[in-house]
Design goal:
Blueprint: E1 4-7, E2 12-18, H1 24-35, E3 40-42, E4 51-58, E5 73-81, E6 83-85, E7 94-97, H2 104-112, E8 116-120, E9 129-130, E10 133-134, H3 135-140, E11 150-163, E12 166-173, H4 179-190, E13 194-204, E14 207-208, H5 215-219, H6 223-228, E15 242-244, H7 247-254, E16 259-260, E17 266-272, E18 275-282, E19 287-293, E20 302-305
């Protein structure tokens, strides 16, 4: 007879240090099982090649996960010059090999063209969809479709080191930026081609890799130690101003009703005392409209057959 797994309500945010070679969903499911969390999601995928910061949301925190999708990201990456691949990274099939003969000064000058607002063509091996199908599915069938360039911004692009045919870069960029495309485009400018050899995500908005924990470390912890690793749901909303409501206003907000407030226009995180009520938006009339609200009491545990 198979054992049964009991899922329970867990609310909070886990900053996971995802290992390379693992999909974001596999990392999410591994962490979810460690917490026995009934509901879980992540805030945007990392490629299997990549390691680093992957914020995971449990329970009520999943309602706010979309807010990190628009946040700036920071990466450390290794570029390999003189070799191009069909995926633009080290997991792909080698397409071309070329000699590498540029100096550090020439590399620095080439990097200058990629700082600030740029137009970038997304790679075929990506999760973007065309007619409902992910581009990477089409790419694996040998089908290439036209991808319109997108406006992205490279806020910081710093050369960490350069030796032979490899360099390490620090990249801080806007949402929608593909570091693989940056590697390929830089290689094209330098005339030798390039691909992304390694990628590590250091930050997502205000969240930092220094505060993250690995799956191995989580596995070795007690249940109480794991719970201590969870951040409150409003860790995802720190870029928004707080708005305080009294008990009556808080109840109206939680029931989906607008509340009159004196606060700045736009989105905000809403509290009653220290309790997070949800995400709201203040209009020009000073009316606070509920956008997402936090649920109430924990739900009963949900059994599931282990597989």
């Amino acid at each position: 007879m198979t054992a049964r797994k009991s899922w329970r309500r867990v609310d909070g945010v886990l900053l996971l240090d995802k290992p390379g070679g693992m999909t974001s969903n596999a990392a999410l499911q591994a962490a979810r099982r460690l917490y026995s969390a009934a509901k879980a999601g992540h805030t945007g995928t990392l490629d299997p090649l990549a390691s680093g910061l992957l914020p995971l949301c449990f329970g009520e925190a999943t309602k706010f996960s979309a807010d990190l999708l628009t946040a700036d990201k920071s990466y450390e990456c290794e570029l390999v010059f003189g070799v191009t691949t069909d995926t633009g990274d080290a997991d792909g099939r080698i397409l071309t090999r070329s000699p590498v003969g540029f100096s550090t000064g020439e590399l620095e000058r080439a990097l200058q063209a990629f700082r600030g607002p740029i137009r970038q063509v997304p790679p075929m091996y990506s999760a973007l969809k065309r007619a409902g199908r992910p581009l990477h599915e089409l790419a694996r069938q040998g089908i290439e479709v036209e991808r319109p360039p997108r406006e992205v911004s490279i806020h910081e692009l710093r050369l960490r080191d350069f030796c032979g045919d490899r360099c390490r870069l620090l990249v801080r960029c806007s949402k929608g930026t593909y570091v693989r495309s940056l590697a390929m485009d830089l290689g094209a400018v330098l005339g030798c081609g390039a691909h992304l050899g390694a990628l590590r995500r250091l930050a997502v908005g205000p969240l930092q890799i220094a505060d993250a924990v690995s799956l191995d470390a989580l596995s070795a912890m007690s249940a109480d130690e794991r719970r201590a690793c969870l951040l409150p749901a409003d860790a995802l909303l720190q870029s928004l101003p707080p708005v305080q409501l009294d008990e009556v206003g808080g109840e109206r907000f939680l029931h989906g009703n607008c509340v009159g407030v004196r606060a700045a226009l736009g989105r905000c995180r809403v509290y009653s005392g220290s309790r997070l009520l949800g995400l709201g938006e203040v209009d020009a009339a000073g009316s606070l409209q509920p956008r997402r609200v936090v649920g109430g009491l924990p739900e009963p545990a949900l059994p599931e057959v282990s597989r």
